[in-house]
TrEMBL record:
Full protein name: Iron-containing alcohol dehydrogenase
CDD domains documented for this protein: PDD (cd08180)
Organism: Citrobacter farmeri
Keyword Phosphoprotein: no
Signal peptide: none
C-alpha cells in the first residue's frame, strides 16, 4: 500500500513573505546562519513581520549543522519559549530548525507554528520529513526521517534567491535534479511522486543554466524555487538512494557542498543502477518525458541520452571535477574510502535504492570518481 500526504502549507511567488503578516503579538524565533543574520535579506524578513511581534535570532548555524548546534538550539528554545520558529536560509538552516523543533517537542517544549523559508533552491527541506545532522568528530552525516519534521508552513519567495552566486545556484540546482531522479527510480516511487519528479526535472533542464547565467531573472529563479520544492515533495514520499548515501559521505569526510557531491556522482550512479531492468526502464521513461531523446528510442539509447544531457548540464553550469573540488585533500581520498563505504552502507537513504549495492560496488564507484 502506498501513502501520500502533504502536511506543509505552501505560499509562493514574489512578495509571498507578506503572509507573515498573519502573526500578531507572538514571540518569533528566527534560526539562520551568521551571514544571513548580517545580510539585507534578514531585514526583508523583519520588515514582513508586524511590529507588535517580538523577534529573537539564533545565528549559530553552519554548513552541515552538527549535533552540538542542535543541542545548543534546544537549550535556547527552552530558555526563550517562542511561539513561532522560522527556519531561514539554505538547507542547513532549515534542517537545523526542523531538528531543534522536533527534539524540543520530545522534551515538552512546543510551539504554535514552524515556518520554513528557503533562500536557496536545492534541498527542498521546506516540504520534507527529513533533515541531515552531522557528527564532525566521526565525519558522518545522519539523515533523519520522521513525519513530525514537516514544517507547518513554507514560503517560496524568489526575491530571496536572486542574489545567490552562480556556483551555489549550480550546486543546489543539481541537488534538485538528483532528488527528482532518485525519487523516480526509488523502490517506493508511485504515480504521485513520478509526476512531481518529472516536472521538477523538466524545469531544471530548461531553467538551471539560465539561473546560473542570469541570476537576477526573477521568473527563472521562481521556476527553480518551485522545482526544488516539487523534488523535495517527491523524495520525501518516495525516498532517495545510492547517490545520496555516498554523497553524504563526501560531505561528512571532505565537507564538499551537498549538491556538488550529488552532481559528481549522478551519472556514475545512473550507469550502475541501469543494470537493474526496472531502473533502466524508468530512466528511459524519464529521458523521454524530459524530451532528451525520441519516444521511439530503446532503453539503452534513452539511458545514454540521459547521462549525456546531465554531463552537458554540468558543463554548462561549470560543475568542477572531484579533483578540482578536493584540492589538497585529494591525497587523503584513497585512505578514507573504507570509512565512506561503511558509512554509506549504513545510510538510511540506501534502503529505497533500485539496485542493491554492496561494499565492493560502493568502493568501486568511489575509486572511479578520482
Amino acid at each position: 500500500m502506498n501513502t501520500f500526504s502533504l502536511q506543509t502549507r505552501l505560499y509562493s511567488g514574489p512578495g509571498s513573505l507578506k503572509v507573515l503578516g498573519r502573526f500578531t503579538n507572538k514571540h518569533i524565533w528566527i534560526i539562520c546562519d551568521g551571514f544571513l543574520a548580517r545580510s539585507p535579506l534578514i531585514d526583508s524578513l523583519r520588515e514582513a513581520i508586524p511590529a507588535d511581534n517580538r523577534i529573537s535570532v539564533f545565528s549559530e548555524i553552519t554548513p552541515d549543522p552538527t549535533i552540538g548546534t542542535v543541542v545548543q538550539g534546544i537549550a535556547q528554545m527552552q530558555s526563550l519559549r517562542p511561539d513561532v520558529v522560522i527556519g531561514f536560509g539554505g538547507g542547513s538552516a532549515l534542517d537545523a530548525a526542523k531538528a531543534i523543533v522536533w527534539f524540543s517537542r520530545q522534551f515538552d517544549i512546543d510551539i504554535e507554528t514552524c515556518v520554513a523559508i528557503p533562500t536557496t533552491s536545492g534541498t527542498g527541506s521546506e516540504v520534507t520529513s527529513a533533515c541531515v545532522i552531522s557528527d564532525p568528530e566521526k565525519g558522518i552525516k545522519y539523515p533523519l526521517f520522521n513525519n513530525a519534521l514537516y514544517p507547518d508552513m513554507a514560503i517560496l519567495d524568489p526575491m530571496l534567491v536572486v542574489s545567490v552566486p552562480p556556483a551555489i545556484t549550480a550546486n543546489t540546482g543539481m541537488d534538485v535534479l538528483t532528488h527528482a531522479l532518485e525519487a523516480y527510480v526509488s523502490t517506493r516511487a508511485n504515480d504521485f511522486t513520478d509526476a512531481l519528479a518529472e516536472k521538477a526535472a523538466q524545469i531544471v533542464f530548461q531553467y538551471l543554466p539560465v539561473a546560473v547565467r542570469k541570476g537576477d531573472c526573477l521568473a527563472t529563479r521562481g521556476k527553480m524555487h518551485n522545482a526544488s520544492t516539487l523534488a523535495g515533495m517527491a523524495f520525501s514520499q518516495a525516498g532517495l538512494g545510492l547517490n545520496h548515501a555516498i554523497a553524504h559521505q563526501l560531505g561528512g569526510q571532505f565537507h564538499l557542498p551537498h549538491g556538488l557531491a550529488n552532481a559528481m556522482l549522478l551519472t556514475s550512479v545512473i550507469r550502475f543502477n541501469a543494470h537493474d531492468p526496472r531502473a533502466a526502464k524508468r530512466y528511459a521513461r524519464f529521458a523521454k518525458t524530459c524530451h532528451l531523446c525520441p519516444d521511439s528510442a530503446n532503453d539503452t539509447t534513452s539511458v545514454n541520452a540521459l547521462v549525456q544531457h546531465i554531463e552537458q548540464l554540468k558543463k554548462a553550469c561549470a560543475i568542477p571535477t572531484l579533483a578540482a573540488a578536493l584540492k589538497e585533500q585529494k591525497q587523503d581520498w584513497s585512505q578514507r574510502i573504507p570509512a565512506m563505504v561503511q558509512a554509506a552502507l549504513a545510510d538510511v537513504t540506501l534502503k529505497t535504492s533500485p539496485r542493491a549495492a554492496d561494499a565492493g560496488a560502493i568502493q568501486e564507484l568511489l575509486e572511479e570518481l578520482l
